[in-house]
Structure formats: C-alpha cells, structure tokens
Design a protein that fits this description.
This protein has 112 residues and is mainly β. It is 0% helix and 52% strand. The strands form two sheets. Strands 2, 4, 5, 6, 9, 10 and 11 form a seven-stranded mixed β-sheet that branches. Strands 1-3-8-7 form a four-stranded antiparallel β-sheet, with no helix packed on it.
Length: 112
C-alpha cells in the first residue's frame, strides 16, 4: 500500500522558516518524481514544487521560487521542503504527492 505521511507543519511568524518532511512507504520511492502541493483555506490545490527521482532536477512555482527548496533522501525514502522567508499567503495545508496520490497533509500557518 502506498503511504505518504507529511510532518513538520506549524505556526510561524512572517519571515520565519519551517522544514516539512514526507515519509514514503509501500513503493520504490527512488524511481518516482515527487511533488509538493498546497491548499489554502477556501482555495483549490496549488502546485508548489517538483523534484526528479534522482533529486538532480527541481522546479518551483513562481510564488515560492527563491524561498522554498525541495530535496529528497532516497536512502531514507523521505521528501523535504525547506521553507524560508514565509509569508502570510503561504498559509495552507501542504501535501506531498506521487502522481494522483497524496498524504493527509500538514498545516502551515503564517501569522503575526
């Protein structure tokens, strides 16, 4: 069974940082491109970032470029999202995703 479990969310002030993790199991993590998506209150899903299976290629939404960094540790079957310089508009539930499969998400709230 494919499982994706996100963690690391929380409440942070504007300008702060958080590091999200996504623990993957039930499939061969190292051969899949992985993505992060988010859903802000009352809005649809928004793609945030993508990382290739070997971690050598990454892409970002314009809204997070230069502030977020995606990475992965294939030995640990874990995906990461380092989020710096957080803004109020980054408030959302963040999900890691493999194809059409997402985890339960982790809440990130940016508030003063």
């Amino acid at each position: 069974e494919v499982r994706l479990v996100e963690s690391g969310g929380g409440l942070v002030q504007p300008g702060g940082s958080l590091r999200l993790s996504c623990a993957a199991s039930g499939f061969t993590f190292s051969i899949y491109t992985m993505t992060w998506v988010r859903q802000a209150p009352g809005k649809g899903l928004e793609w945030v970032s993508l990382i290739s299976s070997d971690g050598h290629s990454t892409t970002y939404a314009e809204a997070v470029k230069g502030r977020f960094t995606v990475s992965r540790d294939n030995a640990k079957n874990t995906l990461y999202l380092q989020m710096n310089s957080l803004k109020l508009e980054d408030t959302a539930v963040y999900y890691c995703q493999r194809g059409g499969i997402r985890g339960q998400g982790t809440q990130v709230t940016v508030s003063s």
